[in-house]
Amino acid sequence: MKTAVSQRPSLILAQPDAIALPADFDPDLTLRGGQAFRWTVEPDSNGQTAYRGVVEDMTLLVAPAAGQWQARLLNHPPTPPRLARLRDYFDLDRDYAAARQALLERVERVAPLARLSGEIERARGLRILRQPWFETLVAFVISANNHLPRIRQIINVISLKFGQPLGSGDYAFPTPEALAAVAPATLRGECRVGYRDRYLCQLAQRIARERLAWEQAATRPTLELRQALQTLPGVGPKVAECVLLFGFHRWEAFPIDVWVRRAMTGALVAPAPDGRPPADRQIAAAAAARFGPLAGLAQQYLFEIARRHKPKADNASAGDNRSSPRPRA
């Protein structure tokens, strides 16, 4: 078990080779918006804002170079398989302009949503990352009733204590087998996961026992995978949708939190007669009917738009600490 983090050296952009990210890539929306928890903001060797993160066993630096954002491997040679994984992680082979245009066509058919077209265009730099599914699963179980800085801290401590060192103070997220061997009391006392300690232990033990079946889960139909996820300890409908979208890249998934619920209420779903928000199942059905296979992308845009226009009073309430599986900063 590790007990200390080594000092990181200065970030050097000279090597290894990088992959170019799209011209409109927005690192804040994509890396720090709440779908991933392993990215920190650090200056690069030129003093410019850069983003350092861990993906599987790779330490990455996303930094500006030659007028655009580039993703650079820091701890491995840029072999073709690793560069291919980076392309996959940033979903670079998908035409986001075409997807956004198809979504806008669906949005503009509904008057209350049509007014959001311009704001969707302004969020055009957002991408949905293809993350490791087990880490995503654990992260969103932790995220319930939590806020973003604390989620990041917990994930980093779990990685430090039970993951493999990657050099320069970075650690991979632990395997299911490694996490399954950790006692609930250790997770609660040293990683500060709170009441989630037993859920996380039982979850990791279950995945470790059924590792082959879960490794093949990406081939299962979404409805079947959604149902399977909800049989896991600590996983309800909201967490399952997050894991489907961010861990298994199922764009038809539609996580619902307080911000998305607000955006959808009145626009696509009427509130209850007593003024309460509609049930999440009604919102999910409306999203599936309107957005179809682009529901996950729509959810990301709706979240960002709702957050952008949040009342100031929400900064200290729903926005920073809420009982949702997708808290954000």
DSSP helical segment count? 16
- CATH-scheme architecture of the largest domain: Orthogonal Bundle
Number of strands: 7
Helix coverage percent of residues? 40-55%
The main sheet comes to:
5 strands, antiparallel
Shape: globular
**N- and C-termini, Cα separation:** 30 Å
Fourth-tier CATH superfamily name of the largest domain: Hypothetical protein, domain 2
Low-confidence stretches: 1-15, 315-329
Structural class of the secondary structure composition? alpha+beta
For the biggest β-sheet, the strand order reads 1-5-4-3-2
Q: How many distinct domains?
A: 3
Q: What sequence of helices (H) and strands (E) makes up the elements?
A: EHEEEEHHHHHHEEHHHHHHHHH
Q: Can you give the mean pLDDT? A: 88
* CATH-defined topology of the largest domain: Endonuclease III, domain 1
Beta-strand content: 5-15%
CATH structural class of the largest domain: Mainly Alpha
Rg for CA atoms: 20 Å
